[in-house]
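FAQ: What does the model actually see?

It sees only this:
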Amino acid sequence: MPLMQFCMYGCMILTSWFGARMIVSHTLTTGALMSMMTYAIQILSSLMMLSMVFVMITISRASIE
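And it is asked to produce this:
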């Protein structure tokens, strides 16, 4: 779980950094950056939930045995 959160926050920092550079160079608008960050958060949150489902399945399988 901490590794997944580290990846999620690292991706957000990189998106913010590259987006800020693109905004300064006038190739991206702030609205486009916010929508890109929103989509990235949604995708990464879904992946984190999927990984938690696999962890729960593994734990329940061990509990059944």
